[in-house]
Each structure stands twice: as C-alpha cells, then as structure tokens.
Design a protein that fits this description.
homodimer, alpha/beta, Rossmann fold, Dna Ligase, domain 1, D-amino Acid Aminotransferase, Chain A, domain 1, 3 domains, 6-stranded antiparallel beta sheet
Chain lengths: ~350, ~350
Amino acid sequence: MLPCPSSVRSQSMQANNWLISSGGRRGALVDLFRESTSPVRSRVVVTDVSRLSAAGQHADEFELVPRISADNFLSETLRISKKHGCSTIVPTIDPEIAVLARARAQFRQHGVDIWVSSPQVAELGWDKWDLYRWLIEAGYPTIDTQEIAESRLVPFAGRVVAKPRTGSSSIGVLIVDNVESLRVSALTDDYILQRFAPGIEVTVDVAVDERGTVLATVPRRRLEVRAGEVSKGVTIHVPEIELLVRDMVTSLPGAYGVLNVQVIYDPETNSPKILEINPRFGGGYPLSHAAGGDLIGAMLRSKTGDTASETWRPGTVMLRYDEAKFYADQEFVLSPWS
Amino acid sequence: MLPCPSSVRSQSMQANNWLISSGGRRGALVDLFRESTSPVRSRVVVTDVSRLSAAGQHADEFELVPRISADNFLSETLRISKKHGCSTIVPTIDPEIAVLARARAQFRQHGVDIWVSSPQVAELGWDKWDLYRWLIEAGYPTIDTQEIAESRLVPFAGRVVAKPRTGSSSIGVLIVDNVESLRVSALTDDYILQRFAPGIEVTVDVAVDERGTVLATVPRRRLEVRAGEVSKGVTIHVPEIELLVRDMVTSLPGAYGVLNVQVIYDPETNSPKILEINPRFGGGYPLSHAAGGDLIGAMLRSKTGDTASETWRPGTVMLRYDEAKFYADQEFVLSPWS
C-alpha cells in the first residue's frame, strides 16, 4: 500500500476534477480539460518537477512533485490528487507511463482513477522490439524489424533505419541507404534495425474505455514536425487506417484511456503499417479535438454506458504557433544568474 | 524602379496598417502589432510563400507571395502593401533582410517604410566573419575568431566552436574540446573557428529610430531553447550588457527598426561579449513586450519626436506552449495525400 499522510484533509473526489501529471508545456491540453466538462465547473491541477511549467500557469492549482524515479513520486501524486479531490489522473509523458500503470489498482482503492493502460501495454509502448514481436504474432502489418544481433548475421538489403529499441523522439536514430554504410558492429545491443518504409506518417488518436471498447479513432497527418512534435497537421478520412487501428487496439492486452498509434501509410499500395504505440495523450491531440473528436468527453460519457463512436470532421488543419504565459519571478530580480 | 501594376487601386497609406513579411508561425507578433496601436483600429496584413501560415490566420488579410529569390518578390510585396494601405513593412526572417534592405529607398518613394537596417548592417547580421572584423575595428568585445585558412596554420588552443560564417540556427555548428579532434582540413573555406566562450547567452531586443537613436534595450536570458528558438526565458537587469549593446548599435552603419543582439555574459568576469546581430524582430520578442518594453510603440512615438527610453520590468518569466489556429481545408477532404 502507498503511504498517505493522514494530516492532509482531502476534498471529496469530483468527477470533473483532473490531475494532469508532468504538465510541462501542455497549456492547450489543460484548457481542453477545463472546457470538456462545462457547464459543470471543473478544476484542473497540474503537477511538474519544475516550477517553469506553462501548463502549471494554465491550471487552477499547480503543485511540484519529485522526479518520477524518486521513491515518493507515487505517494506525492496520490496525496495531491486527494488534497484537491481529483478523481482522475492523466499522464502525459513516456517515463511515467510504466510507473503509473503498475500503480493503477492501488490508486483505485483510494477512489482515484488513472487514464493509463495495463503494464503490458505500457511495455509495448516503450519497447519497439517487444511491440514488433507482438504485432507479428497477432497478425498486424508492421515494419520488418531485426534485433541488432540478427542484423549482424543476415542484414536487410536496401535502405534501413537503426534506432534504440526503447526511447522517444528521434534520439539516436540513423537512416542509411544501405546497411553496408552502417557500422553495425559499433551499435550497442539495444539497437534494432528496420527496413525503411516508404509512405506518409499518420497519427491516430484513440479513446478506449474500461471494457476495452474503442470510442474514437481520429487519424491526422503530420504536415510539418518541429522539435519532434507536430507543428502543422490535418485530420484525414482513411477508413483502412481507422479499421486497422481500431482492431489492433481492441486486441491489446489492456488499453485504457486516450492513447495514440503511429502508422505509416503508402498511398501507392493502399497499405497501412503500425509503427508505434504511445499509451498517453499525443502532443497533437488538440487537432483531433478541434476537428470535433472530443475524446475526453467520450471517456466521460462511457462511464454512463454511452459508447457511441465519436464523429469528427476530416480536412481540419492545425497551424501551431508559440503562445506564452508570463509571470513575475522575484528570484531573477534578485539574481539574474540564479 | 520597381514595376507596380497600375490596375491595382491602392488604399491611402495608414500609419497603423502593417505588412508583416514572411509571417510563418509568428501569430503572437501579429497580435502585438494589432494591440500596439489601439484604441486606433489597426490592420495587419501577413504575407507568406505557403498557405499553411499560423500568422496568416491571425492577420486581417493574408496574401501569398513568391519566394524571396524570385524576380517579382519585391514588386509583389510592394503591390500588396499599396493594395491594403500598409505604410510599414516588418521583415521577420533572415533571408529577406538583405533583399529588403537594398529596396528600402525605393519603397519610400511609394510611401512605404520598411523597418530594416542598411545593407551594410544586413551584411554584418548575415556574415559572422565580417561582424567579427567590424567589432574588433570598432573596439567592442567579442569572441576570438579565425577564418578557417588561418586556423589551419595557427589554430586556437583549447575548446573551440566551428561554424559556417553565414547561416542561421545551429546548422553545421561543431563544438570540440580541442582543435586536434576537429578535422580542420575537411571543413570548407566558408567556416570560421571561434574560441569557446564560457558564460550565459543573453538576447537583447533593441529599437532604433531613423536618426540612429536607441529607444529601448531589453536583455532577456534564455532558460530553455527548443528547435533553435527560446521556449523559456526571463528579462534581466544587467546594466553592463545594456550599455554595451546601446553603444554598439549606435555605432552600427545604419541600424533601423527592431533588431536583436546576442551576447555571451560571464558572471565570473562580469564581461559581456557580442556574439551576433539579427537585424529583425527576434522570435522571443513577445517576452520583452510582456515585460513592458513596447518596442513597436516606441518606434511609433519616435515619429513624433518622442525618443524617451522604454522602461520595462526585470524578472518577467516567459513559459511558451503550443497554441494553434484551426481551419477547414477542402483540399484535404478531397485528397488526404495532396
């Protein structure tokens, strides 16, 4: 059991009180949560390890938490949830998924739900080699993949991509025209090799309820990427992609909450391939929401048995720009170099 | 003379009608221009080479222009200015600075001002080697720099930075602990070598009127950078930096408009060094503005002879996050892969 300081007088849990964990710069997501439950007044609490969080400035309450790797990350997160009566925790970054996935049952005993998938799905989201093996076994189309040991013996011909089997963004990714120009021997054992797949990258936002029912699938195409995050995108209507993702997510061992699935689609062969699963809100979720796909509302309605599929508008374009929150920080007045 | 199609019925020029050139994702800047001239109703026209411009969605009018390198970039920009009665053009990206700097006098004959410095200052902003020589000659502190040919003969000792003498962001930049680990012979002749300078990077937003009077200097520290652009920053009060930048900008051969100067400051030695000049609005300008340093208003007031220095608040923190404009684009409904 998690320790829970008895000195904290907790509010009663409210269905429309949210805790967005590791809020970072997700200011727009905080706003969407607040709007999703109107006209009922909702409250959004944001936690972060740094006080310099834009999402924290958007929130009704902002609380600092220890690092995810710290012993008291979970107990502090639970304490803050109870203090503010938050009945739902929404994780936002990869490193906390596995930690929160393992704690979900315990949090439920305290009346706090976490929109996070099972530890098995967390693992498939984290480890590309495990995901590849699961997809092949379950019969879903994906990119041909090898462990680095295998690729040293019988490498793929043609253009290949080498990447760490775990990890986010494009850190450590190498693309070469043929495997001979790759120093495979120099790559560490945690690398995998993938055949380069021609096509267009499509991200699908998915909402899944507690019984594993898929409530929504919204495919959006990345038109421009900036710092690993979509900066221009558009929702697109491609039934092949939605059907594949809906089927695959239903087969996952315990998907729950809002997640996103990366797909490579080759318009010439009409074939989508599954590339990656992120069992958390994608950074580009506000586009699906703006297109009418309110996955937050769909999750809430599913609690009352309403599992109708969300409808949304294709051809909705998102053009991102930098907005900012500003505040006065006396520390930098006293010492500019602090 | 620039050709100007006679078929366009131009509006009369309005002091508070703006053309923001190459608007891209500068949505926040468009908003600041509109607010700067309230309560008088202002209009902001944005141009861009792509229809997918967030700034274009913020503008009162959005117009496509040819590429900067195209023969008719200038004539189209002038035509659009006149069509909408824009008396001032505000450039925003490096590649257009030199082109607009050379055209400024011609545009003035049509009643259109461009907030851009002289071609000589444009050159100093573009070419790091030219800037170094100018700074040394004028007696301003900067980073020790060598042309690559010189560095092949007598290289600097210790940690060095190699970078293309022209170019933006950090493209092509190499940092090594000692010059021996750098294959200097492999670098092309357009590279320069700089001694690595310890310290903290500070950007100073500067407004300069037509007589070369500096109206404002707002130093802001970069706390976090994302995709080459400040994502967290804070205004700081450091008189040594402001005095140096004010003096240097006054000595420049024809600074005009809002520009920014990059400085490296070493708190241990109390010595600022000038690193770079960008003769255009910096991406982080909204922070200076939020701190009370309204450089747009200062430029406008200078027209009526008011050249009082802008005051602003140190310790103003900016935390950026992604906002977006959304619109329906029928083209992607008809063909998702267009």
